[in-house]
Amino acid sequence: MDGTKPAMESNAEETQDEGQESKGCFECCIKCLGGVPYASLVATILCFSGVALFCGCGHVALTGTLTMLENHFSRVTSDHATLTMVIQIFQYIIYGIASFFFVYAIILLAEGFYTTSAIKKELQSDFKTTVCGRCITAFFMFLTYILALAFLAIFGFTAIPVFLFFNMWTTCAAMKSPDANITSPDSICVDVRQYGVIPWNATPGKACGATLGDICNTSEFYLSYHLYIVALAGAGATVIALIHYLMILAANWAYLKSAVSTHEYQDIKTKDDQDLEAEARSKEGQNSSSYS
Protein backbone atom coordinates (compact mmCIF):
# COMPACT_ATOMS: atom_id res chain seq x y z
CA MET A 1 0.00 0.00 0.00
CA ASP A 2 2.76 2.41 0.89
CA GLY A 3 4.51 1.67 -2.42
CA THR A 4 1.45 2.35 -4.53
CA LYS A 5 0.68 5.71 -2.94
CA PRO A 6 3.75 7.56 -4.32
CA ALA A 7 3.07 6.05 -7.75
CA MET A 8 -0.50 7.34 -7.71
CA GLU A 9 0.70 10.79 -6.65
CA SER A 10 3.25 10.87 -9.48
CA ASN A 11 0.59 9.85 -12.01
CA ALA A 12 -1.70 12.57 -10.72
CA GLU A 13 1.09 15.14 -11.06
CA GLU A 14 1.84 14.01 -14.63
CA THR A 15 -1.85 14.24 -15.55
CA GLN A 16 -2.03 17.73 -14.04
CA ASP A 17 1.07 18.82 -15.96
CA GLU A 18 -0.38 17.47 -19.22
CA GLY A 19 -3.63 19.33 -18.55
CA GLN A 20 -1.75 22.57 -17.92
CA GLU A 21 0.26 22.12 -21.12
CA SER A 22 -2.86 21.46 -23.19
CA LYS A 23 -4.55 24.45 -21.58
CA GLY A 24 -1.52 26.60 -22.37
CA CYS A 25 -1.53 25.46 -26.02
CA PHE A 26 -5.27 26.16 -26.28
CA GLU A 27 -4.88 29.65 -24.82
CA CYS A 28 -1.96 30.30 -27.19
CA CYS A 29 -4.05 29.23 -30.18
CA ILE A 30 -6.94 31.44 -29.07
CA LYS A 31 -4.55 34.37 -28.63
CA CYS A 32 -3.09 33.83 -32.11
CA LEU A 33 -6.52 33.53 -33.72
CA GLY A 34 -7.62 36.67 -31.91
CA GLY A 35 -4.85 38.64 -33.63
CA VAL A 36 -5.96 37.68 -37.15
CA PRO A 37 -7.67 40.56 -39.02
CA TYR A 38 -10.52 38.50 -40.46
CA ALA A 39 -12.07 41.43 -42.31
CA SER A 40 -8.78 42.14 -44.10
CA LEU A 41 -8.34 38.44 -44.80
CA VAL A 42 -11.78 38.19 -46.43
CA ALA A 43 -11.11 41.35 -48.46
CA THR A 44 -7.74 39.95 -49.60
CA ILE A 45 -9.25 36.65 -50.74
CA LEU A 46 -12.00 38.54 -52.59
CA CYS A 47 -9.43 40.88 -54.17
CA PHE A 48 -7.22 38.00 -55.32
CA SER A 49 -10.21 36.16 -56.78
CA GLY A 50 -11.60 39.23 -58.55
CA VAL A 51 -8.27 40.32 -60.03
CA ALA A 52 -7.45 36.77 -61.15
CA LEU A 53 -10.81 36.40 -62.91
CA PHE A 54 -10.60 39.82 -64.52
CA CYS A 55 -7.00 39.53 -65.71
CA GLY A 56 -7.06 35.88 -66.79
CA CYS A 57 -10.43 35.90 -68.52
CA GLY A 58 -9.94 39.38 -69.95
CA HIS A 59 -6.59 38.45 -71.50
CA VAL A 60 -7.95 35.32 -73.22
CA ALA A 61 -11.14 37.10 -74.30
CA LEU A 62 -9.17 39.88 -75.99
CA THR A 63 -7.14 37.31 -77.92
CA GLY A 64 -10.32 35.50 -79.02
CA THR A 65 -11.93 38.77 -80.07
CA LEU A 66 -8.96 39.67 -82.25
CA THR A 67 -9.01 36.23 -83.86
CA MET A 68 -12.74 36.51 -84.58
CA LEU A 69 -12.35 39.96 -86.15
CA GLU A 70 -9.44 38.84 -88.31
CA ASN A 71 -11.31 35.78 -89.59
CA HIS A 72 -14.75 37.28 -90.23
CA PHE A 73 -14.85 41.10 -90.20
CA SER A 74 -11.45 42.47 -91.22
CA ARG A 75 -9.40 40.19 -93.41
CA VAL A 76 -6.89 42.88 -94.40
CA THR A 77 -4.20 43.21 -91.72
CA SER A 78 -3.68 46.94 -92.23
CA ASP A 79 -7.36 47.63 -91.50
CA HIS A 80 -7.16 46.38 -87.93
CA ALA A 81 -3.51 47.17 -87.18
CA THR A 82 -4.52 49.89 -84.72
CA LEU A 83 -6.94 47.53 -82.99
CA THR A 84 -4.21 44.89 -82.70
CA MET A 85 -1.88 47.41 -81.08
CA VAL A 86 -4.60 48.58 -78.66
CA ILE A 87 -5.39 45.00 -77.63
CA GLN A 88 -1.72 44.32 -77.00
CA ILE A 89 -1.51 47.45 -74.85
CA PHE A 90 -4.56 46.31 -72.87
CA GLN A 91 -2.96 42.92 -72.34
CA TYR A 92 0.22 44.54 -71.00
CA ILE A 93 -1.93 46.69 -68.72
CA ILE A 94 -3.60 43.50 -67.47
CA TYR A 95 -0.15 42.11 -66.58
CA GLY A 96 0.57 45.28 -64.61
CA ILE A 97 -2.79 45.22 -62.84
CA ALA A 98 -2.31 41.60 -61.77
CA SER A 99 1.19 42.25 -60.41
CA PHE A 100 0.30 45.49 -58.67
CA PHE A 101 -2.83 44.20 -56.93
CA PHE A 102 -1.06 41.03 -55.80
CA VAL A 103 1.55 43.14 -53.98
CA TYR A 104 -0.94 45.77 -52.80
CA ALA A 105 -3.34 43.22 -51.30
CA ILE A 106 -0.46 41.60 -49.38
CA ILE A 107 0.58 45.04 -48.06
CA LEU A 108 -2.97 45.83 -46.93
CA LEU A 109 -3.24 42.43 -45.23
CA ALA A 110 0.05 43.08 -43.40
CA GLU A 111 -1.23 46.53 -42.43
CA GLY A 112 -4.35 44.87 -41.05
CA PHE A 113 -2.23 42.53 -38.90
CA TYR A 114 -0.18 45.46 -37.64
CA THR A 115 -3.16 47.65 -36.86
CA THR A 116 -5.09 44.88 -35.11
CA SER A 117 -2.11 44.14 -32.89
CA ALA A 118 -1.47 47.83 -32.25
CA ILE A 119 -5.07 48.49 -31.23
CA LYS A 120 -5.09 45.60 -28.75
CA LYS A 121 -1.78 46.63 -27.20
CA GLU A 122 -2.90 50.25 -27.14
CA LEU A 123 -6.02 49.32 -25.20
CA GLN A 124 -3.88 47.29 -22.80
CA SER A 125 -1.55 50.30 -22.31
CA ASP A 126 1.40 48.24 -23.51
CA PHE A 127 2.02 50.09 -26.73
CA LYS A 128 1.67 53.55 -28.20
CA THR A 129 0.92 54.19 -31.85
CA THR A 130 3.02 56.80 -33.57
CA VAL A 131 1.93 59.64 -35.81
CA CYS A 132 3.79 57.93 -38.67
CA GLY A 133 1.72 54.76 -38.24
CA ARG A 134 -1.53 56.70 -38.35
CA CYS A 135 -0.33 58.64 -41.41
CA ILE A 136 0.48 55.35 -43.20
CA THR A 137 -3.06 54.12 -42.52
CA ALA A 138 -4.47 57.40 -43.84
CA PHE A 139 -2.27 57.17 -46.96
CA PHE A 140 -3.47 53.62 -47.70
CA MET A 141 -7.04 54.78 -47.19
CA PHE A 142 -6.59 57.58 -49.75
CA LEU A 143 -4.81 55.28 -52.23
CA THR A 144 -7.49 52.60 -51.89
CA TYR A 145 -10.17 55.21 -52.55
CA ILE A 146 -8.41 56.23 -55.79
CA LEU A 147 -7.99 52.59 -56.83
CA ALA A 148 -11.65 51.88 -56.12
CA LEU A 149 -12.68 54.73 -58.42
CA ALA A 150 -10.24 53.53 -61.10
CA PHE A 151 -11.50 49.95 -60.96
CA LEU A 152 -15.07 51.20 -61.02
CA ALA A 153 -14.21 52.84 -64.35
CA ILE A 154 -12.61 49.56 -65.49
CA PHE A 155 -15.81 47.75 -64.49
CA GLY A 156 -17.83 50.09 -66.69
CA PHE A 157 -15.37 49.73 -69.56
CA THR A 158 -15.54 45.92 -69.32
CA ALA A 159 -19.31 46.09 -69.73
CA ILE A 160 -18.87 47.45 -73.29
CA PRO A 161 -17.67 44.21 -74.95
CA VAL A 162 -20.28 42.28 -72.96
CA PHE A 163 -22.94 44.55 -74.45
CA LEU A 164 -21.59 44.14 -78.00
CA PHE A 165 -21.38 40.36 -77.77
CA PHE A 166 -24.83 40.25 -76.17
CA ASN A 167 -26.26 42.11 -79.17
CA MET A 168 -24.69 39.60 -81.55
CA TRP A 169 -25.90 36.68 -79.44
CA THR A 170 -29.50 37.98 -79.26
CA THR A 171 -29.49 38.61 -83.03
CA CYS A 172 -28.35 35.05 -83.73
CA ALA A 173 -30.89 33.69 -81.24
CA ALA A 174 -33.65 35.64 -82.97
CA MET A 175 -32.64 34.19 -86.33
CA LYS A 176 -32.74 30.64 -84.96
CA SER A 177 -36.03 31.09 -83.14
CA PRO A 178 -38.98 29.34 -84.89
CA ASP A 179 -41.32 32.08 -83.69
CA ALA A 180 -39.34 34.83 -85.42
CA ASN A 181 -40.90 34.11 -88.87
CA ILE A 182 -38.03 35.77 -90.72
CA THR A 183 -38.61 35.72 -94.49
CA SER A 184 -35.26 37.23 -95.48
CA PRO A 185 -32.49 36.23 -93.02
CA ASP A 186 -29.82 37.84 -95.21
CA SER A 187 -31.27 41.24 -94.31
CA ILE A 188 -30.30 40.73 -90.66
CA CYS A 189 -26.75 41.95 -90.21
CA VAL A 190 -24.27 42.92 -87.54
CA ASP A 191 -21.91 45.69 -88.58
CA VAL A 192 -19.03 46.06 -86.13
CA ARG A 193 -17.78 49.15 -87.93
CA GLN A 194 -20.55 51.23 -86.38
CA TYR A 195 -19.05 50.56 -82.94
CA GLY A 196 -15.70 52.05 -83.95
CA VAL A 197 -13.88 48.76 -83.44
CA ILE A 198 -12.54 48.71 -87.00
CA PRO A 199 -12.46 51.50 -89.63
CA TRP A 200 -15.27 52.01 -92.15
CA ASN A 201 -13.09 50.89 -95.08
CA ALA A 202 -12.54 47.45 -93.52
CA THR A 203 -13.81 44.53 -95.54
CA PRO A 204 -16.24 42.92 -95.17
CA GLY A 205 -16.94 44.82 -91.93
CA LYS A 206 -20.29 43.14 -91.35
CA ALA A 207 -21.88 39.70 -91.31
CA CYS A 208 -25.39 38.83 -92.44
CA GLY A 209 -27.70 35.85 -92.47
CA ALA A 210 -26.06 32.43 -92.48
CA THR A 211 -22.59 33.95 -92.14
CA LEU A 212 -23.65 35.64 -88.93
CA GLY A 213 -25.09 32.37 -87.65
CA ASP A 214 -21.82 30.59 -88.41
CA ILE A 215 -19.88 33.26 -86.48
CA CYS A 216 -22.11 32.79 -83.44
CA ASN A 217 -21.41 29.04 -83.58
CA THR A 218 -17.63 29.46 -83.54
CA SER A 219 -15.61 28.67 -80.41
CA GLU A 220 -14.01 32.13 -80.50
CA PHE A 221 -17.37 33.87 -80.16
CA TYR A 222 -18.78 31.50 -77.52
CA LEU A 223 -15.61 31.50 -75.40
CA SER A 224 -14.94 35.25 -75.66
CA TYR A 225 -18.53 36.15 -74.80
CA HIS A 226 -18.58 34.08 -71.62
CA LEU A 227 -15.05 35.10 -70.64
CA TYR A 228 -16.04 38.77 -70.90
CA ILE A 229 -18.95 38.06 -68.56
CA VAL A 230 -16.63 36.38 -66.06
CA ALA A 231 -14.13 39.25 -66.38
CA LEU A 232 -16.94 41.71 -65.67
CA ALA A 233 -17.86 39.72 -62.56
CA GLY A 234 -14.20 39.71 -61.51
CA ALA A 235 -13.98 43.48 -61.91
CA GLY A 236 -17.12 43.86 -59.79
CA ALA A 237 -15.65 41.59 -57.10
CA THR A 238 -12.47 43.67 -57.09
CA VAL A 239 -14.49 46.87 -56.63
CA ILE A 240 -16.33 45.28 -53.69
CA ALA A 241 -12.99 44.16 -52.20
CA LEU A 242 -11.54 47.68 -52.50
CA ILE A 243 -14.64 49.18 -50.86
CA HIS A 244 -14.27 46.57 -48.11
CA TYR A 245 -10.61 47.57 -47.70
CA LEU A 246 -11.64 51.22 -47.55
CA MET A 247 -14.11 50.57 -44.73
CA ILE A 248 -11.50 48.52 -42.84
CA LEU A 249 -8.85 51.23 -43.16
CA ALA A 250 -11.29 53.95 -42.09
CA ALA A 251 -12.34 51.91 -39.05
CA ASN A 252 -8.72 51.14 -38.11
CA TRP A 253 -7.76 54.79 -38.41
CA ALA A 254 -10.70 55.80 -36.20
CA TYR A 255 -9.82 53.11 -33.63
CA LEU A 256 -6.20 54.23 -33.52
CA LYS A 257 -7.19 57.85 -33.08
CA SER A 258 -9.67 56.93 -30.33
CA ALA A 259 -7.11 54.72 -28.60
CA VAL A 260 -4.56 57.53 -28.61
CA SER A 261 -7.10 59.93 -27.10
CA THR A 262 -8.01 57.35 -24.44
CA HIS A 263 -4.35 56.74 -23.65
CA GLU A 264 -3.65 60.46 -23.31
CA TYR A 265 -6.67 60.84 -21.03
CA GLN A 266 -5.46 57.96 -18.85
CA ASP A 267 -1.99 59.51 -18.63
CA ILE A 268 -3.43 62.87 -17.57
CA LYS A 269 -5.71 61.18 -15.04
CA THR A 270 -2.85 59.12 -13.61
CA LYS A 271 -0.71 62.23 -13.28
CA ASP A 272 -3.53 64.12 -11.54
CA ASP A 273 -4.08 61.20 -9.15
CA GLN A 274 -0.40 61.14 -8.33
CA ASP A 275 -0.41 64.90 -7.68
CA LEU A 276 -3.44 64.58 -5.40
CA GLU A 277 -1.84 61.68 -3.55
CA ALA A 278 1.40 63.62 -3.10
CA GLU A 279 -0.54 66.65 -1.86
CA ALA A 280 -2.48 64.50 0.59
CA ARG A 281 0.75 62.98 1.92
CA SER A 282 2.29 66.41 2.37
CA LYS A 283 -0.76 67.57 4.33
CA GLU A 284 -0.60 64.48 6.54
CA GLY A 285 3.07 65.19 7.16
CA GLN A 286 2.30 68.78 8.14
CA ASN A 287 -0.50 67.69 10.47
CA SER A 288 1.68 65.09 12.20
CA SER A 289 4.48 67.64 12.69
CA SER A 290 2.05 70.20 14.17
CA TYR A 291 0.70 67.64 16.66
CA SER A 292 4.17 66.69 17.72
UniProtKB/TrEMBL annotation:
Predominant subcellular localization, coarse grouping: membrane
Region: Disordered, residue numbers: 269-292
Domain of life: Eukaryota
Record's GO cellular component terms: myelin sheath; plasma membrane
InterPro entries found in the cross-reference section: Myelin_PLP, Myelin_PLP_CS
Composition skew (Basic and acidic residues), residue ranges: 269-284
SMART domains referenced in this protein's UniProt entry, alphabetically: PLP
Residue spans crossing the bilayer: 41-69, 89-114, 135-166, 227-248
GO biological process: axon development; central nervous system myelination
Pfam families in UniProt: Myelin_PLP
Tagged with keyword Transcription regulation: no
Keywords: Membrane, Transmembrane, Transmembrane helix
Family membership noted in the UniProt record: Belongs to the myelin proteolipid protein family.
Protein name: Glycoprotein M6Ba
Organism name: Seriola lalandi dorsalis
